[in-house]
Amino acid sequence: MYPEGGLAELEINEEIDLYQNCLDDDDKGFALMEEENSAKYGIKTMLKSTKQSMKDGKCKDLVKFHLQGVHCYDILRNPLYASAFQYFSADLENRKEYIIDGNKDESDDFA
């Protein structure tokens, strides 16, 4: 039982589409490329079905449905955090050219 004024009385009245239909191509591309990069190291952050629904999703109205700002809980999608961690995203062309690490092995710079 909910207390007076609690969830039982809460009415949500907003028109919103499914998450995968609220992403623009940039957000989808980033998320899918990060997932692909993580998979190289045995890390999966989404189910196959989620990945497929994201690929298939279409934003019908970028003004009405597009998620603004950081569209997920990935802190690296926030430019301030990415900059603070000096992170170069997996979708960056020639990413290994930006990576400087502490070893002499240049073959691991893409990681």
Q: Provide the residue-averaged pLDDT.
A: 82
Shape: elongated
Report on the biggest sheet.
none
Q: Helix/strand/pairing class, anyone? A: mainly alpha
Low-pLDDT runs of 5+ residues are none
Distance between the termini: 51 Å
Structure report:
- Helices cover 27% and strands 0% of the residues.
- It is mainly alpha-helical and 111 residues long.
- It has one domain.
- It is elongated, with a radius of gyration of 19 Å.
- The model has no long low-confidence stretch (mean pLDDT 82).
Produce the secondary structure layout.
Blueprint: H1 25-39, H2 48-56, H3 79-84
Please supply descriptive tags for the structure shown above.
single chain, 111 residues, mainly alpha, 3 helices, 27% helix, 0% strand
Q: Brief description of this entry?
A:
This protein has helices at residues 25-39, 48-56, 79-84. The chain is elongated and about 65 Å long. The protein has one domain.
